[in-house]
Every structure is written in C-alpha cells, then in structure tokens.
Design brief:
The complex is a heterodimer. By secondary structure, chain A is an alpha/beta fold. Helix content of chain A is about 35%, strand content about 25%. In chain A, the strands form two sheets. In chain A, strands 6-7-8-3-9-10 form a six-stranded mixed sheet, sandwiched between helices. In chain A, helix 3 crosses helix 4 and helix 3 packs parallel to helix 5. Classes of the chains: A alpha/beta, B mainly alpha.
C-alpha cells in the first residue's frame, strides 16, 4: 500500500472521467468517490456507460481524459505501474474468463505464485480455504469446462480474492448465468459485502442491489444522473430518467 | 523373383550402395530437425511481434520488418530461396551445405509457422487476455502463461502439418548438391539405370517417417485434449 495514502481519503477518487470510442462518448465526465467498505452498485440502461466506467477503474479500458486516484496514486498517469495496482483490484467478468487450460487450483494460485512470490504450498492452502468458503473445495482438481456456470463464477470470484485485493469490481457477474444459478453467486457476493469488502458492482439485479448496496449510482448517457442509499433510491427517485428506468425494471 | 533379388542386390548391396540411402536419410533428418527448431523460434518471435502490434499498436517498426519478411518468403519458391542462400548470400564463403540448407529451410518455415501461431493467438478469446491483465500480469506474462498455451493447442494440427511439409520440402536440397535422402536415391538410379527400386525405397522411407510423426502428434493432441473443453 502506498505510504502517502491516508486512510481517511476515499479508496478510489474518480474525477471528470471521459472515455470516447471514436465519435461515441461512452463516459461524459464521471466523478465519484468510493470509500473503504463501500458496496457501490451501478445500475442504468444498457449503453449508459456503466461497464465502461467499471473497466476504466482498473484501466482495462484506457480513459480518454480525467483522473482516477486509487489509494492515493494517480493510476491514469502513464508512468504508474498499473500491473502493480491491478493486483489490488480484483475483477469478475460476465463471461467468467477462467483459464481453461488450468485446473481450478492452478487458476487460483497462478497469480499469487507468479506475482506475489508465494510458495505453491502457501498459495494452495489459502486457495483451498477460500474454496471451502464457497463450497467448491471438492472441485479443486477439476478443469473449468467441468463446472456449471454458477460454479465457474464462484471460482472467478475466488480467483480475484486470492490476490487479496482492496476492492472487488464486478461486471454484470450474473448476466450470463441460467436463472437457477444466479442465487449461488449472489450469496457469495453477499458474504463478501458482509465482511466489509469494498465492492463496485455493475448489475441488473435490482432486488439484490437494494438488499446489499450501501450506495447506488444511476448512470445514463455516460453520466452519473443520480446517487442515493438503496431505500431512497428505489422509494424516492428524484430525476425523471431514474423514475422512467425504475418503472421499466421493477 | 530372381530378377527382383538381383535388382535389389544391384541397387542396395553392390558397392555398399545402401549407404547413399542411410547417409542421405541422416542428412534429411538433420536438416529437418534444425530447420524445424529454427522455424519455431523465428515463427514464434514474428507471431508475438505481429500480435502485439495488432493488440496494442506497439512495436511498429519490428512489425514492418516482420511483414516484409513474410511477404518475401511466402511470395517466392523455396528452391529459389535455397539457391539464393547458397550462391548469393553464402556465395563467397566456404560453408557446410547442411548449414546452408538448415538456414534456408528454417527461414522459410519460420514465415509459415509465424502465421500459424498468430492465428492461434487470435483464436484465444480476448476475455482471457483481460482476465490475465486484471489479475496483474504484464502483457508478456499474460501471453506466456495464459494465451500461448491455449494458442499452441489450437494450432497443433496446423503446426504438425507444417513440419510434415518441411520434411518433404527438404527433398529439393539436391539443387545445391546436398546429398539428402532424395539425392541419395537418385544417385543410385544414375549408377544402376534402374529407377524403380531406389526411388520407391526413398518414397517409402518418407512415408514411414511421416506416419510415425503423425502418430506422435495424435498422442500429443489426445493428451492436450484431456485437459480441457
């Protein structure tokens, strides 16, 4: 962790973030602070820029303009070693993206072993502990293709956790799942939130957002249109856009 | 039957003519082996440069050099490349013909291997790349641990095919008077005026080598398939 980082500061400070794809402006000046322990849900219509916003946070998407401070370090600065900071930002994808040529255990340990100089034994012991927590310890030797979608996504979450991140980024983690598998993934995420893991979640699961989030951001046309705590967010939407959106999804 | 035995004696036993075949085989295998290694190394480097350029826009100048290399090698016949290597590039130096053949065939094969490996890299879903980077791996580490192992598996049949082609392609080494397997059989033919026996023998040896090679590739493919979708 950066020594200049003051724990009183927000964990992530986003200022005037802009991202354009050619003529298309996906993000139109997004500013938000994310504090340690926050469980921030980002919702909005498709094409509103919420996934782009999330992917800019660990620079999988290169921001066109604006600033992101993570633990006090400007990670949009080209001189910043982004690979170092990504280790502290776990990411979970819609399509799981497990490594198909490795066993589950290898999927979980390759990061800690290659990047954090852990011994294989140590990394495996930690991975097994986390696997037990999500109820998949018996699948350690399996390959990703042998798992169901819900199991794959739980493994993907564990893979990110194995790096001991300071924040977890979720990019529509349940959108590619069959309905009956959504619950098992959400329950892992709920556990994480209860353990005060800082989370940023892009999702369409409104009921889950209401239950787990402490803040909800509503995005439209590349901007944060409204932000509130969950109950007020759903009970007293202020902007017409949000009212309109909620009337469609609830 | 007696005639057949007599012909066999004449072509292979008399004056130890079988040695043309065995010595030629040794040359063919040597050239193929080292050309394959050279082709893999070259092809690998070129493929990584080209895919890096495609994915990130970096290595612009190296990418141009690689493109020129691919265009020239794939646009001219291998025999011409072999002759140029021997008579032009190494024309004024005294150099072992085996080395010349290894360089010519290795450089030639590298161009084809490069495109095969590149297509393999491109066939791996971009999500794999993002997953690797999101964990904190550098571009190079992601390539090495995540992308290339999957790419290699995807292109194994195409790579095997390339090496079969290479093994057979070395038969034109006779153009620079290198006595490989084909040349060896042809020398026997020119001594005995019997074309059938030496040339069929040469053909059978190539065929058997390819079949053995194919068998090993099948085994390797099966082993790799076991570990995945």
């Amino acid at each position: 962790m950066n020594t200049n980082y003051d724990a009183q500061q927000p964990l992530i400070q986003v200022t005037d973030l802009i991202k354009s794809f050619g003529d298309l402006d996906a993000l139109n000046g997004v500013s938000v602070n994310i504090n340690e322990g926050d469980v921030v849900f980002v919702v909005g219509p498709s094409g509103s820029g919420k996934s782009t916003f999330l992917r800019c946070l660990n620079r999988l998407e290169e921001p066109t303009n604006g600033r992101i401070l993570f633990e006090g370090v400007d990670i949009t600065d080209p001189k910043t070693d982004i690979d170092k900071h990504r280790q502290k930002m776990g990411m979970v994808f819609q399509q799981f993206n497990l490594f198909p040529h490795m066993t589950i255990l290898k999927n979980l340990t390759i990061g800690p072993v290659k990047l954090q100089n852990k011994s294989r034994e140590e990394a495996e012991a930690e991975a097994m502990k986390l696997l037990e927590r999500v109820g998949l310890a018996d699948r350690a030797g399996a390959y990703p293709s042998q798992l169901s979608g819900g199991q794959k996504q739980r493994i993907a979450i564990v893979r990110a956790l194995c790096m001991k991140p300071d924040v977890m980024l979720f990019d529509e983690p349940t959108s590619a799942l069959d309905p009956e598998m959504v619950g098992e993934v959400l329950s892992v995420m709920r556990d994480l939130a209860e353990q005060r893991m800082t989370m940023v979640v892009v999702t369409h699961e409104m009921a889950f957002a209401r239950e787990v989030a402490n803040r909800i951001l509503f995005m439209a046309e590349g901007k944060i249109v409204e932000e509130n705590e969950p109950v007020a967010f759903f009970e007293n939407p202020k902007s017409d856009r949000l009212k309109n959106f909620l009337s469609k999804v609830l | 039957m007696d005639q057949l035995i007599e012909k066999f004696y004449m072509n292979f036993i008399k004056e130890d003519r079988w040695q043309y075949i065995t010595n030629g085989l040794r040359v063919t295998l040597t050239v193929t082996f080292f050309a394959v290694i050279m082709g893999i190394v070259l092809g690998f480097l070129v493929a990584v440069v080209r895919s890096t350029y495609d994915k990130t826009g970096k290595m612009k100048i190296l990418n141009i050099i690689c493109n020129v290399y691919l265009t020239i090698i794939r646009g001219t016949p291998v025999v011409v490349q072999l002759l140029i290597t021997y008579f032009v590039i190494f024309g004024s130096v005294n150099i072992n013909k085996v080395v010349v053949a290894v360089i010519a065939f290795g450089v030639n094969s590298g161009a084809y291997v490069a495109e095969i490996i590149r297509s393999g890299i491109m066939s791996v879903d971009n999500g794999q790349f993002e997953a690797g980077r999101s964990i904190g791996f550098t571009y190079g580490q992601t390539m090495l641990y995540i992308i290339l192992p999957q790419a290699f598996k995807n292109v194994l049949p195409a790579l095997a095919n390339e090496f079969i082609v290479l093994l057979k392609e070395t038969s034109v080494a006779g153009y620079i008077a290198l006595e490989d397997l084909t040349k060896g059989g042809d020398i026997i033919r020119s001594r005995t005026y019997d074309a059938f026996m030496p040339l069929i023998a040469v053909a059978v040896i190539y065929l058997v080598m390819v079949m053995i090679f194919n068998y090993f590739v099948k085994c390797l493919e099966r082993r790799l398939r076991n570990s995945e979708h």
